[in-house]
Design a protein that fits this description.
By secondary structure, the chain is an alpha+beta fold. It has one domain: PAS domain (Beta-Lactamase, 2-Layer Sandwich), CATH 3.30.450. Helix content is 29%, strand content 27%. The chain is built from five helices and six strands; from the N terminus they run βαββαααβββα. A hairpin with an 8-residue loop joins strand 5 and strand 6. It is globular, with a radius of gyration of 15 Å. The chain starts with 5 loop residues before the first strand and ends with a helix. This is PAS domain-containing protein.
Length: 167
């Protein structure tokens, strides 16, 4: 039986080394600006985490985040291609509400958001760590979000692994 995910305190230190490094890279891109420019993102410098990344466009009226680019590891974890799809098309309630609220928070605050999500799956607690980093196309508003996700158990490589490890 699946129970709702619980978010850990967002002030916790980042546990996954790749996510901590990505957060540091984001701070470098930002420099003294409020938001880093999208043009500062260099995929060749992100090979350490590229398979676990997605670049998400933010549409404002109505508010709808849309996956522009999705790393191969994330495609494997979801079990389908997400490129071009809207976040509200990918998730069901109540997860959809939580994910959209996270994007809204990043867009509103212009600050990174780190969460650890845990689920009760069968007799095990499994989950993932998520980092969301805002980018601008050249102004003061958040136009894109870099999303990085790492499963809490490194044995989870594809969608079926969630079920297999829960049993």
């Amino acid at each position: 039986m699946r129970s709702p995910a619980k978010a850990q305190d967002e002030t916790r230190p980042i546990q996954v080394p790749e996510l901590a490094r990505l957060r540091d890279d984001w701070e470098t891109w930002r420099g003294s600006a409020a938001l880093p420019q999208r043009s500062a993102l260099n995929p060749l410098a992100l090979t350490y985490c590229l398979p676990n990344l997605a670049l998400v466009d933010i549409e404002r009226e109505p508010f709808r985040p849309r996956y522009r680019l999705v790393g191969t590891r994330l495609v494997d974890l979801w079990g389908r291609e997400l490129r071009g799809r809207y976040v509200d098309e990918v998730y069901r309630f109540p997860v959809r509400s939580e994910v959209l609220a996270a994007y809204r928070k990043v867009v509103t605050t212009g600050e990174p958001l780190y969460n650890e999500r845990l689920f009760n799956l069968g007799f095990r607690r499994l989950g993932y760590q998520r980092l969301m980093l805002p980018l601008t196309a050249g102004g003061d508003s958040v136009d894109q979000v870099v999303l990085a996700i790492y499963p809490s158990d490194r044995r989870i490589r594809v969608r079926a692994d969630w079920k297999d490890l829960a049993e």
